[in-house]
# Entry
Amino acid sequence: MRRVVLQSIGRVGFAELDRPAMGENDVTIKVRACGLCGTDLHIFTDPHAFGDPFAHPLGHEIVGEVVEVGPKVTNVQVGNRVVIDNATACGVCRSCKNGNPGACTSIVNLLLEGRTVLQEYVVVPAQSVYKFEGLTFPEAALAEPLTVALEMLASAEVGLGQNVVVVGPGPIGLMAARVALHMGARCVYVLARSGRPSRLKLAEKLGADVVLMDQVDLEQYFTERAIKFDRALVTAPPATINRIIPLMAFAGIITYIGFEFDGKEHVSLDLNNFHINKLQLRATHAIPNRFFPTALDLIQQGVIKAEDFISRTFPFEEVQQAFAYAAQGDAVKTVVTLD
# Structure
């Protein structure tokens, strides 16, 4: 079978390898679609940011069809359509046993194990798949990034009547903005840099207000409009938080996901200000993942629509073109499909 691998900076291709062996609790999945994540694109354009430039696997937003099940598998059958959870709580550590799987200390991370990769077949534990019906494979490929947005919303405790600011108009930020409005947020602003018109147009279509943070003084802009934010969802590089803190309301919560890949910028906190204003800063990511059933429901209900978020699909044979297209930066979500 073929696996997508990084061949050089800005170029991917195929490697031939045998289909993985399957254990008694595993399922073999024929991959039918895979979304390209921002992490994949960082590897494609700047692989050295991840240490060994060619060791990190590509592709993990995988959906497909079950073609074989182990003898002890009972939750899925051959022919089921499934999405794959890349990082599953173990269920047996102290945190899991105490009802807090989000703090699992023995996460089953299939991505880091190289088991969920953009290739023709993958073998994963049966406990790591979720069945779906009534969606195309590309539509279901939106579930994985949507779970990350849902994790941010849960971590920030977004609720009715709140003013919410989303920093960064990527797929996760735009999904978070859409769901925040669906949950009853009073208003949602998306802060972005200029130069990505398709993403900004989608933010407005979803019901958010857009402010170009490279063209205005944010503190002055929102002070003039008497707006303070109860919740901030930061999907841009964390150093952006420095500009968000002055925008926060009393007892506001800032949640962020992401990395500073160059390591040159840092967040500077006035802890007295944080204390007096009862602000909170929370890091989050969807490892382990808690929200696949909810994500699939939101896609099926049309809260998250594929026609809004999928900019383009490419066949597996055109994977180089898919990466190059996505790396240009204005596409929302690019999906690779396999027959």
The radius of gyration is 20 Å. The longest strand covers residues 26-35. DSSP finds twelve helices and 17 strands in the chain. The first helix runs from residue 38 to 45.
